[in-house]
Amino acid sequence: MQNTKDRVTIYQVAKAAGVSLATVSRVINKQASVTQATREKVENTIIALGYKPSGLAQALATNRTTNIGVIIPSANYVYISNLLSGITETAREKNYVLTLFSTSHNREEALAMMEKVISTHVDGVIVYDDQLLPEDIQTIASYNVPIVVLDNKVVGDNVGDIHFSYSASLRCIINEYYEKGGESPMTFLHVHNGGRLLNRCEKVFIQTNQELGKEYRVINSDDSYTRTYNEFREYFSQPENHKGFFICARDSLACAVQNAASDSGLRIPEDVEILSLVGTKYAYIVRPTLTTFHIDMHEVGKRAMYMLTDLMNHDLIDRSAHFDATYVQGQSTKKRLKEEN
Fold first, then answer.
1. ∠ at Cα 166 (214, 196), nearest 5°?
2. pTM score, two decimals?
3. Residues 115, 93: Cα–Cα separation, whole Å
4. Domain spanning 167-294: which CATH class is it, in words?
5. What share of the chain is helix, strand, coil (3-state, %, to 5)?
6. Where in the chain is the domain with CATH 1.10.260.40?
7. What would the CATH number be for the domain defined by 67-164+297-324?
8. In CATH, what is the architecture of 10-62?
9. What is the pLDDT of residues 285-324, one digit of tens each?
């Protein structure tokens, strides 16, 4: 049994009034290019049918769809979910709807998603994908689509960018480790297809250790808690690996290393220290708590959406925003630095 009345559409209004969709849209948006007689006929039809205008009517008149495309690598990561939360909150405030385009760690797939974005005729795009190159981003911009890109430097009239900075904080951690008596070589977990951010951090890690004349290790790791845990249970079974400082891409991998060390009878942080580059809520849930770098991705999402709406309205003055990673001391490392507030 039908308990609710079917929603009346703009198509039904146009058909009942004997006019085009564009005419109905112009009446709804109070544009002057409609005769008085036609306007009254459409308005009376709207009242008779009980029509409630939607974004489609506005889109027909303004050539805007109120639709924003968002390209992300995956919504499974907590920090991506936080980003989407910020974008969604601001999109709702600005009366925009979102279409998500999720990619894997694959540049070809990301490029294919960009083609889909263009074909959907969105009003603007927010892009956060570590596999895309600046010239790839320019592809969307060349179609005159306003775009805000995260962690990728792109210059253009229709482009804004938000950049993440980890280099200074990571250098400081490495320097302080050795200045405060760190003896074991530091180890960086390299994740295949980890993206530009992780690659930049790895380069800073290698360069800083080389400048200090220190030995260091880079260990290949899967982007998987289970596989990383199993690999490090085997790693910590060797006596020569019972000491160390490990820098991990994100909390899930840091938890894998930490749990493997604890289950191997090693002490945190007396024997093994762990730092997570991308801190999330899991850093506070796990015991011992994780030391991390933190960027408020919810705030990043809000800023990205505000920048995009200003860009679409030709009101964006500062086309570049900057978020520095802050150091958050947990129990997984010895206290050497003051926590940033």
1. 95
2. 0.77
3. 28
4. alpha beta
5. 45, 20, 35
6. 10-62
7. 3.40.50.2300
8. Orthogonal Bundle (1.10)
9. 999 999 999 999 999 999 999 999 999 988 988 889 999 9
